[in-house]
Amino acid sequence: MSHRHQPSVAAAAAAPQGSAASASAAAAAAAASQSPSIPPSLEDLCVRLLTSRGLRDLAGPTAAGCGRISFYPRVPYLCPAVADKLLNSLAAGGKLTDPLLGAFTPDRCGLQCVQLENAEDLSLESLKVLKRHRLLRLTCVRLEQVNLYSLVSCLSDASKQQMVSFNLAGTSILCDKLPVIVCLSVFRSLASLNLANTELDCKCLEVICNDLRHLVHLDISKTDVVDIWPLRRMRHRLKYLHLYGVKPKQASRFLTVLSELENLVLLDISDDTSLARFGKPQVQQQVRELFSSPNFLPRLEHLDVSGNKLKLDVGLLRQFVLARPSLKFLGFAMVDEQLSGEPELPVEIAGFDTEDQLIRCLHRYRDRENYMQQTLCAVFLHTNHMFNLRERLLRATFPVLRKYSHRMQLQLAGTAVLYNLTRYQLSFKLCPAVRNTVVDLVLNAMGNFPKQQQLQKNALLTLCNDCFLHQAEFDRLWCLSLVCDGLVQFSDQHMVRMLVAIVSIVSAKVSSRDLALLGSQERLFARLVALVQDRRRLLRSQLADLPKPPGPSDLDPTLKFALSALWNLTDECEPSCRL
Q: N or C: which terminus of the chain has fewer CB atoms within 10 Å of its end residue's CB?
């Protein structure tokens, strides 16, 4: 391996003229400061390590067997603060199983605030362990094997009396095809209720408004509610209301109810771009009248109108914001109006006009796929002619690309954004952890969509970078396998040049034993040899037309990379040499 050829790929990654990703390399040298990140606490690092190992340092199979798990005797009693963190971290990482949940018995730990997210496969039997704890808050997101009625049966009477928060987003409230919302009436202390993405309808909403007398926080986003008139019974106490994607039958009646909720501090009426709740002229007039009234939601601190076609005058919106000194946030993404060019408003805005607005969109709307698609497209346009380091913006895209790793259109936009934010010399200014993450995301996209040519091209533009290939830490054999498959599959000349360049670099850093795994790919070596022959014939015809002997600048980069790739792939590797 010490004799393998390791060329630079700078020439191979040069974008073709007229491409969306092309730009001046000279401008890329502009400097930008990196924003420092807050390191995790020691406790968080310990929890992260323990949960990444599936708690096997703390718990194991019981002597009785039967697939049960319990904490080891040497493990002390876990107080609620620690037990909650461990359990919730397991769930968030997708590692919480029925046996692991069964280990959290009240004689070994105390649970108070349980968050079962990314744990869709938990069974009803395992959830019964919750009945032995006194819970204050419970989150059960998208549980597939239980419904509201069976979940309530897994809670103790003490939990039902003292629970203040219940999140059932995405979990069915149906029992025998009928909603059973009446069982929520036993939660007398409930102050926060999330029923987003459930089968909630208007009758269920009426039961909630009548029975839950302490409710101040309600989320009924993406439900079957078409009339929010029952909310008038809660107008003196309701403070937080989420109505994302709710489709009212009568928009004017909808607005009338909102105008009566005088104590609201948070209102989310954001929508999907495919809907137009306030499209009628008379409704738009009502919207303008409400926003010009000083008595409309005077205590508001958080307003989200993203995705709505409000047809609001920017001056009127500015007047609305300035008349409410308590207002701190305004969601204004995917609306017709633009705030760019206007004097800066004294609130945080989630929108598409500035970098800070885009970062807020990436954080706040991460669970909305359509929003993320539009936001990444906006980030691409925003950074298309930008050559300063934007690490905050780059980091904000990472969770989105991980979450939607199997959504092709979103990955297509995401890989283009990664290129814009790491091209040329910008990659050398990134910290090692960020570099590694970028390469991992690019390789995941390539692996998930091997036949999507434009996505592969975006990924190659990012990956064909000396900094990434030489300094980043990643699975080089996997990378080599992906680019070799692409080399066999695609014929686009620019892609071929990048592919052979990456092969020539990465193959020099892979052991001979691993290279032997590629020795059976006859099509790969046939492709490389054919490339050498084609480029040689082309080079002969070009040299014949040169008025003087060729210099280094006249060498064909594709031929050079193809020869280097063949050199490295066959070095001390007998199966490859035979091919």
A: N
Cβ–Cβ contacts within 10 Å for residue 452, how many? 18
Task: Indicate whether 20 pLDDT > 60.
Answer: no
CB-CB contact of 416 with 60 (8 Å): no
Q: What is the pTM of this model?
A: 0.85
Q: Is residue 127 exposed (0-12), middle (13-18) or buried (19+ Cβ within 10 Å)?
A: buried
The secondary structure element, H or E, covering residue 219 is: strand 217-219
Instruction: Judge contact between 22 and 385, C-beta under 8 A.
Output: no
Helix (H/G/I), strand (E/B), else coil: 242: strand
Please report the pLDDT score of residue 468 as a whole number.
96
Task: List, in sequence order, the alpha helices (H) in 122-190.
Answer: 124-127, 148-152, 157-162
How far apart are alpha carbons 203 and 201 in whole angstroms? 6
Q: How far apart are CA 328 and CA 351, in angstroms?
A: 14
| 349 CB-side CA count, 13 A | 20
According to the model, what pLDDT value does residue 137 have? 98
Q: Determine the Cα–Cα distance for residues 128 and 123; give it in Å rounded to an integer.
A: 9
> What span, in angstroms and rounded, lies between the C-alpha atoms of 150 and 155?
9
Q: How far apart are the first and last CA of the chain?
A: 19
Residue 106 to residue 134: CA distance in whole angstroms: 9
Please list, in sequence order, all residues whose beta carbon lies within 8 angstroms of the beta carbon of residue 504, skipping any fewer than 6 positions away. 5, 6, 7, 9, 561, 562, 564, 565, 567, 568
Tell me the C-alpha distance between 251 and 254, whole Å. 5
Are residues 268 and 331 in contact, defined by beta-carbon separation less than 8 angstroms? yes
Taking 50 as the threshold, does the pLDDT of residue 472 lie above it?
Answer: yes
Q: Is 76 or 552 the better-scoring residue by pLDDT?
A: 76
The answer to whether residue 356 scores a pLDDT higher than 60 is yes
- Provide the sign of the torsion angle of the four alpha carbons 494, 496, 500, 506, taken in this order: positive
Q: What is the largest CA-CA distance in the chain?
A: 93
Sign of CA dihedral 90, 96, 100, 102: positive
DSSP letter string, 298-364: TT-SEEE-TT------HHHHHHHHHT-TT--EEE--S-S---TTSPPPSSEEESSSSHHHHHHHHHH
Q: From CA 466, how far away is CA 10, in angstroms rounded? A: 7
